[in-house]
Design brief:
Elements lengths: L1 H7 L5 H23 L13 H24 L7 H20 L12 H5 L15 H25 L4 H20 L11 E2 L3 E2 L2 E2 L3 H27 L1 H11 L1 H6 L4 H27 L1 E2 L6 H14 L5 H20 L4 H15 L3 H24 L1
Antiparallel strand pairs: 1-4, 2-3
Helix pairs in contact: 2-8, 3-8, 3-11, 3-12, 3-13, 4-6, 4-11, 6-11, 8-9, 8-11, 9-11, 12-13, 12-14, 12-15
Length: about 375
């Protein structure tokens, strides 16, 4: 018990807790204060449009964290995590559409505008219950988790691994994208779900609501990081890492590889769904393009850039790459895809451990002369 506490709480992790507290102070205290206190003419003022943009980045960071748990620690490279992200987003979008009520273009209290436009007579059965936030919150986690449970059980029980597993996860998200593009599915087709009005009675256009959603995203990311860290520090986490490095040996020792992978995959999917749900009210839309396999590949690049198997690195990678994307797509739009591809090549060849590996090497380089001086004086 003490060894677990040492790994999770005590001296080995002081640097983590200092960084965690500093990040919390920055994102949870400094950002809201800079938005609320300085006047709009002040150089210190953080404009209102930056709040949902930062919230979107943090949702991406949560998605990257989810992928790092299953890829970096369980050795399962999923290139379909965009599917879980989108399912969580659609669950939130369905709730937000039901919240519109008679304020839609057609004023129908039961049917969303796109259903009225397509001459639907009744609300589909699978939309039932989404007028209640607790039910929607349950489905935000349940929908991606059930998909991950069914898909993972079939794949892991058949011992599909490596590139083959990555390919079929891409097939899964591509199939869902094609399905959600169809108007007959009842999810808005190509346009998706949009024109949201409020959430839990709070106006989504209000700066205060946007700030509240941002704070909720920061809290969700922080708690998710602690949860993932708790998992990887436990005995289950050690089994996951052993399975990542030598799956056959772990199976020989009597551990259930299928159950271990399934646990990591389902938990990762639930976190990805939560990220999607927080993303939708901040950007104002969810459509089938979120299922695109290219999006899932981009998430893997975020994790690789930050440092696979570090948790914190996945968050840093997502924030860094998306900040660069925002700047480049504004300054040199046609260069973004070339930059992204080049970045992945550079990281793969020169920085296989990502930004976290670079930071670790720089820290070791700095500490080496100090250790040599201490040894000389001793």
């Amino acid at each position: 018990m003490r060894s677990f506490a040492t790994r999770f709480l005590l001296t080995d992790d002081r640097r983590f807790w200092r960084g965690f507290a500093l990040a919390g102070a920055l994102f949870l205290v400094a950002v809201p204060l800079l938005n609320l206190l300085p006047g709009e003419g002040s150089a210190l003022h953080l404009p209102n449009y930056m709040i949902p943009l930062l919230g979107k980045y943090l949702c991406y960071a949560l998605l990257a964290l989810a992928l790092d748990l299953v890829w970096g620690y369980a050795g399962v490279l999923s290139l379909g995590h965009g599917a879980f992200f989108a399912l969580g987003g659609y669950a939130m979008g369905m709730y937000l559409m039901r919240e519109i009520g008679t304020r839609g273009v057609y004023g129908n209290p039961l049917l969303p505008d796109f259903m009225v436009f397509l001459a639907w007579k009744d609300l589909p059965w699978y939309w039932t219950g989404f007028e209640h936030f607790p039910f929607a919150a349950l489905m935000i986690v349940a929908a991606p988790s059930i998909l991950a449970l069914v898909f993972g059980w079939l794949a892991f029980r058949s011992r599909i691994t490596g590139v083959y597993l990555s390919i079929i996860t891409q097939v899964m998200t591509y199939a869902l994208m094609l399905a959600f593009f169809r108007n007959e599915m009842g999810f808005g087709g190509n346009n998706g779900l949009t024109d949201f009005k409020d959430i839990l009675g709070f106006d989504l256009a209000s700066p205060a609501t946007k700030l509240g959603l941002y704070v909720a995203t920061v809290v969700a990311l922080g708690l998710s990081l602690l949860l993932c860290r708790f998992v990887v520090a436990s005995k289950l986490g050690r089994v996951m890492m052993a399975m990542r490095d030598a799956e056959g040996r772990v199976r020989f020792l009597g551990y259930s590889v299928t159950a271990t992978k399934l646990f990591a995959f389902v938990l990762s999917a639930a976190l990805a769904g939560l990220a999607g749900a927080l993303y939708v009210p901040q950007v104002g839309i969810i459509n089938p393009s979120e299922f695109s396999p290219a999006n899932s590949i981009e998430v893997a690049i975020w994790v690789a850039v930050g440092g696979r198997g570090t948790l914190v690195g996945a968050i840093l990678g997502a924030l860094a790459v998306n900040a660069a994307k925002t700047w480049l797509t504004d300054a040199v739009p046609e260069a973004w895809l070339f930059f992204l591809g080049g970045l992945f090549i550079v990281v793969t060849i020169l920085l296989p451990d990502g930004l976290m590996g670079l930071i670790k090497r720089l820290r070791q380089t700095k500490a080496a002369p100090e250790a040599a001086v201490e040894k000389k004086h001793a």
